[in-house]
Design goal:
It is built from 11 helices and 2 strands, in the order E-H-H-H-H-H-H-H-E-H-H-H-H. The chain has helices at about 15-25, 45, 60-65, 80, 95-100, 105-110, 115-120, 145-160, 180, 190-195, 200-210; strands at about 1-5, 125. The longest helix is centred in the C-terminal third of the chain and has 20 residues, at about 145-160. The two termini are about 15 Å apart.
Length: about 220
């Protein structure tokens, strides 16, 4: 299953949400692969704490693979290469244009011999959006601010439809967490139990979509 996290702007939580969901799924013993399509400012190296890829890989990146015909894209094993102790030795097996556009997943997959319709049916999208307007942490917001956030959310829904990313369907919501507001990172159990820097509710919120993400009945297709 291919899942895309997309938004029309930076800073909405795409990378930190999708990486934490992928991490939680890998902890369940499932194979999980995270691809960073931010060619200008990739953050995967920082989030997974991979010292030699802080600003992307020097050779064999996704851009080279999709556009330049690179035959062997770079692959990194987080369990082996992360400099973060709690991520090493983990369990075994661990955007509309990106799908439909020129050199997108469908075109590239077809060119490499995959069945286009099968590939299309296997793709899902995750859209990160604005904060929940009904959440308790929004109580201090002014009515004008809440109205502006509602407009932003509606624009994101319209863009998702225009990009053929399907109707919105909520798999889960992630609460604001001080740790993630200050730094994009994976939340490990050590962050909750040992360091006590992360909130249990945040990790539980990542666990929810991770447990349902491979269930086709929980999704609406493209």
């Amino acid at each position: 299953m291919l899942i895309f996290a997309a938004s029309d702007k930076g800073g909405t939580g795409r990378s930190v949400t999708s990486s934490n969901v992928a991490y939680r799924q890998a902890l369940r013993g499932l194979d999980s692969c995270y691809l960073d399509f931010d060619f200008g400012s990739p953050t995967a190296g920082a989030i997974f704490e991979l010292p030699r890829t802080q600003a992307g890989v020097p050779h064999g990146g996704l851009h080279s693979y999709l556009v330049d015909g690179e035959r062997r894209p770079a692959r990194l094993d987080v369990w082996e290469e992360s400099q973060r102790a709690s991520l090493r030795g983990g369990p075994a097996g661990a955007a509309g244009g990106l799908v439909h556009g020129p050199h997108g997943i469908l075109d590239t997959g077809s060119r490499l011999g995959h069945d286009r319709q099968d590939l299309h049916n296997a793709i899902r999208s995750v859209r990160t959006a604005v904060q929940d307007l009904a959440a308790p942490d929004q109580e201090g917001s002014r009515p004008e601010q809440l109205a502006w956030l509602a407009v932003c959310d509606n624009r994101l829904r319209e863009l998702a439809a225009q990009s053929r990313m399907g109707l919105a369907k909520v798999l889960g919501t992630i609460p604001l967490d001080p740790v993630l507001q200050w730094q994009e990172q994976l939340l490990s159990d050590d962050d909750i139990l040992l360091h006590r820097t992360a909130n249990t509710t945040t990790v539980a919120a990542f666990e929810e979509p991770a447990s349902r993400i491979t269930d086709d009945t929980a999704w609406e297709g493209l």
